[in-house]
Amino acid sequence: MKFKAFLTDNGVSLLEKRFLPALDKLGKLCHLYLTRDHFFFLHNLLNGDGVQSIAQFRTPALFDDYRISSQNDDRIAFSVDVSLLLRAVRSSAAVRTDDGSAASSDQDHCLQIKLVKKLPANSTQPLPFLTFETKGHRSAVIQDVPISKPLSRALVLELQTALDAAQSLPMTLVQVPDMNQLQGFMDRMRHVGDSLNVSISKCGDLHLQISTTLITLGAEFQKLLVIGDRAEAPASDRNLSAQSWFERAITRGDAQSVQVSVKHFAKSLHCHLAKPDCAFYGIGEQGSCLTVIFQFFIPGSRQTDKSISFHCRLPVLDTGSN
Amino acid sequence: MSSSAVEAEAPDLVCQLDNVQGMVDALSAVRWKRHQDAVIELSEHGIVLIVEDSNCLQAKVYLQRELFIQYEYKAQGRPKFGVSLGLFVDCLNTFSVPGHSGAIEIQYPGPDMQLLLKSIDSSDACIYAEIRTRIPETISWDYDFEPAGSTPLSFTCKSAALKEAIDDVEWPGSSIQITLQPSPPSVNFMGEGHGYLQIDFMYYVNTDLLTAFHCDRLVSHRYRYKFLRATTANLPSSVTKDNRGSKLTIGRGGMLKVQHLVSVARSTNTHPYINSAGYHQPSRIAYIEFFVKPEADNDDS
C-alpha cells in the first residue's frame, strides 16, 4: 500500500483556505478515501447518524505526480482528525511563504504528502502517518499527521457502496440566493427549537420553520432557481400563507417536506467556508434526506468546475410529507 | 354587517414598523431577567407593554402609534394579552438581520389568538413568526403613581450618568437610599451595608449632569438595589450615544418613577444629514417608565 503526491499551490490554497476549515466544522474525524483518479473527504458515511458530507476532487485539482498503489484495486481509505490535517497544511503553507520559495522554479514540487509507517517514541509497534514534507528555500519541515489503520478491504467496499448511494440526486433542487442571510437567520433561530421543518417545492420555494408549543418561527424564500423537476404554481394559491400553500403543494405532489435537526442544518451552513459559488437544497427520494449541493465555478467564469464536487446529506428526523 | 362578522374578518391591530431594532432596544430595556411574563395592551394610541416583578417593580414601554409607518386599529375596547417577554424579544431579533431594513408587520390576533409577525422588506423572502399569547392575569397591579404633594419632587439627569451611579452603589449593600434636598439642591444615592458609598449629584455644580431639579423639601426613601438596578441595567447603547436624559420622580408613599426615552428611529449612520434632521423628531421615541416601590420599613422624612 503506497501513496505519495505533491500538493500543488492551488491544492494548498483550496484545502487550507476553503475546504479544511469547512470540513473541520462538520466533524472532528473524517475518512480520506483515495482512488486512482479521485481524492475524497468523507464524513459520517459508515456510521448512520450525523451530517454526511462528501468532498470529492479529481486528483489534478490538488496534486501533481499523484501515485497510489494497493492490492485493493489501488484504493486506500483511513480516518484522520481534520483539525490536525488543517494545522499541517497551514504550517506547510507558512513554511513555504516564509522562505520565499513560492517564487522559485521548483514551486510545484516542494510539498509532498505520503503515507508512512513509523515507530513513535515509547512504542513498540509502528503506526501509520500521513507525512507532509515541505521544502522551503532554506529549511525543510516534516510533519507527521497520525491516521487510523487503513480500512480493511470489506470496509473500503462498504465505504464505496455508501458513497455510491450518497451520490443520488434529489429530483428537484432550488438555489439558495444568499447563504449569509440564511446563516444569519439560522443563528437567531437556533435557540428557539431543536428541529427544523424544511419544505421545497418544484415552483422554486424554500420554506424553513421551527415550531414549539409557544412559538412558530419561519422563513420563506420564493422564486428561486429550480434545477430538475419543476412546476408552475396555480395562480389562485398565491395569496395563501406559506404553511397552507405548502400543504396544498405537497398534496399535489409539487412539494416535499422533511424535518431535520437544527444543529445539523447549522452545520451544513458552515460549508459556506469552502466558498462555493452556489448552493442548492433538495429533498432526497421519498424524503430520505435533505441534500445540500455546493457548486464551484472555474475561476473567472460561470462554468462549473467539474473537478471539485461537494455536497452534504442531512439525516431526516421524521418524514413530514407522510 | 354584524359586529361578530367584523371580528372574524378584521384583526384588532395590523401595524407596520420600519425598524425592528428600535423596538428590540425599547423592549430589551425592561428585560431584567430571563423569564418574564409581559402584558400587552393595544389601543388607538399605540401599544403598551407592561412587566412586573415581586409586586415591587413595574415597567411600561409605550410604543405610540406615531412610531409605526402604518397603524390600523379596529378593536372595540382595549384588547390585552400576555406573552413571554424573552420569547417576544428573541423573536423580534430574528427579523433584525444586518444589512436589511428590518421592516415588519405586526398583527393581533391570528386565527388562534397568536401574535403574528412578518417581514415586509422583500417580496421574495419572508420571515414570519407566530407567538402564542395567554389570557393575562386579572390581578390589578397597584402602582397608581400620585404626586407626593402640591409641588413635584423630581430631577432629570443624563441617562448614562444615572446608570453609572446606580452601577457604582452596588457593592455596599442590597438597599439604596435616595435623598432629594432643596438646600443645596442635590440628589444623593447612598448605599450602606458591607461598606458605605455615597454619590451626590449637585444641581449648581454640574448643570450638564443634572439638567432639571424640583424639590421644596427634604425627601428620602430606600429602595431594593436589585429593583433600582433593573431600571437602568438594560438601557440600549443608543440612549448613551444620543446623550439622552432620564427623569426620576418621587410620588406619594415614596414610589419612584423612572422615565427614559429610547430612539426607535431607523439607524442612519450612513447618512449623517438625515440623522441631524431626525435627531429631534419626537415621534420616533419610545417612552419607558419604571415604578419602584420603596422598602416597607422606610421612614418618610
From TrEMBL, chain A:
**Where, per UniProt, does this protein localize?**
Nucleus
Q: Which is one Gene Ontology cellular component term of this protein?
A: checkpoint clamp complex
Signal peptide (from-to): none
Task: Tell me the Gene Ontology biological-process terms attached to this UniProt entry.
Answer: double-strand break repair via homologous recombination; meiotic DNA integrity checkpoint signaling; mitotic DNA replication checkpoint signaling; mitotic intra-S DNA damage checkpoint signaling; nucleotide-excision repair; telomere maintenance
Coiled-coil region list: none
Give the primary localization class: nucleus
Q: Which UniProt keywords apply?
A: Nucleus
Pfam assignment, any one: Hus1
Instruction: Provide the family line.
Output: Belongs to the HUS1 family.
- Name the UniProt record assigns to this protein: Checkpoint protein
Question: Could you tell me which species this protein originates from?
Answer: Punica granatum (Pomegranate)
TrEMBL record, chain B:
* InterPro entries named in the record: Cell_cycle_checkpoint_Rad1 (IPR003011), DNA_clamp_sf (IPR046938), Rad1_Rec1_Rad17 (IPR003021)
An annotated GO cellular component of this protein is: checkpoint clamp complex
Question: To which species is this protein native?
Answer: Punica granatum (Pomegranate)
Name recorded for this polypeptide: Cell cycle checkpoint protein RAD1 isoform X1
This protein's UniProt keywords? DNA damage, DNA repair, Nucleus
Give the CDD domains listed for this entry: PCNA
Q: DNA damage: is it a keyword of this entry?
A: yes
A Gene Ontology BP annotation from the UniProt entry:
DNA repair
Which PANTHER family does its entry note? CELL CYCLE CHECKPOINT PROTEIN RAD1 (PTHR10870)
